[in-house]
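Hey L., structure's done. Input below.
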Amino acid sequence: MIGLYRQKLYLFLYFLAGIFGFSLAQSPRMLIKIEPVMTESFKAQFPAGTSLRCLDAAFGLYQIQAPSERIAQELFRTISAIQGVQFVQKARSVKRRKVPNDPLFTAQNYLNTIHAPQFWDRCTGGINRRGDTLVVALIDDGMDTVHPDLKPNMWFNRNEIPWNSVDDDANGYIDDYRGWNGGDSNNRTFTTQSLYAHGTEVAGIVGAAGNNAKGISGINWQVKLMPLLCYPLNGVDGNLGVIRSMLYVLRMKQLYMKSNGEKGACIMAVNMSVGIDGAFPDEEPIWCSMYDSLGNAGIISSIATINSNADVGVAGDIPSLCPSDFTIVVNSTDANDNRVSSGYSAEHVDMAAPGQGVYTTQLNTYNGPNGPYAAVSGTSFAAPQVGAAAALLCAEVCDSFWTLHKNRPDSAARLLKHWILQSVDVIPALSGKCVTGGRLNIEKARTGMNVWCTAVNQNLKRKSVVYPNPALPGQVIVWDGLMPALKSVTIHSMDGRQVAGELSFAGNKILLPDVSTGFYLLQGNSVNGVVRTRIFISEMSK
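Output:
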């Protein structure tokens, strides 16, 4: 039986030897799995100089490449009939499963430019590691609430009973079920029949529902979009509408943090594709000061600069010129990484994003060739890509970031901004036109984020020593190996329950609480994360 197998195999391999005078770069290819015990005899009988490639000898995996589809089909039948060959299959390319099935995704070339699909292989946004629902606030002209690609990701204030004329969550706003109208100071932020689609266009870029087999995909497949309408119906006091909208965002984030996530909203970014051409910070001090307030609550602001081709430092623009560590000012490039008409400054504009021919959502009443979707251009549609990138990073970032965000939200916001700015693709067209000289790259920002997370986590795992251990209730102990900038110390049972509030400490000396005999976890909370060590407390420890 084995002899017959060898004879057929030899004839087959000799046939291959005669036809394989071709480059290994050609296709099609086949993968062959043979019985592992036949590996050596299989190799020995294969003529030298032919194109058999061993991929895993122990497993019996080989690759053969044919010069044409016709010959490949003949080989497939021949190989399948040989005893000892267990499996034969075509070698085929494997697509990334995180490319969405939205039919108009192919029209969204800018998503490939900023490397969103590479990020999606690991995370598509919406919820962080701790289960918090992430929110991006959009200060604009409202949003279409019935649009099929926006409706799944609309933010709702679940602590507010809609339209009952009562401030149910006691946040100072009545019936703010779908955000707030800063222009008219009421709850009308949604629109289904309107001449204005700007906010709807911005919303689609940030968070059109991804992989739902409808229309397009947002940079975040799942994220909550909070609409803030800053334009009053009577058309006056536009800057007042912006300030009141920003105040709403600030208060909802503060409420979220104060209530430990029970109320408010976990807003990580706010997009502002609105502004005042020719204005300077001394003319808008209240507006400009709000960015620091938002940043102190852990929120970064993505800002669209002017669309005219001018140096904003000379021509003026609010909010581009507002001085704050928590803003990212964005100008515009095209599909070929050329800068298109937009404000520039090596001091006041931070970076660019694709802003020409950005395919996004339109009002549901829009009657275009592809339904309520169309391409738009301008810095208004470059900036939301940056705010969306911030939210996407927050969906994957490590726990250490969230510990930092809880204790020092301003530091977390600065860190988030740093990851985005330091990871741009530097392109010649932006030299001298923005601070970074580069265009958004979300995947590179993720790499920078993970470098930080790895370094911090290694720091948290370093050895720490508590002495004396065992110790007495009420005794002062020393904890060597603590992280710098310690904020608080707590003590927990071995199952993680906190059994005592914040302990008194000075440097690395800590006063133990009066607790019963047993093993406990001593937890140090730092701006860089959390470190724990075990301690035994016993009245008999002496």
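The first strand starts at residue 29 and ends at 34. Residues 238-258 form the longest helix (21 residues).

-- N.
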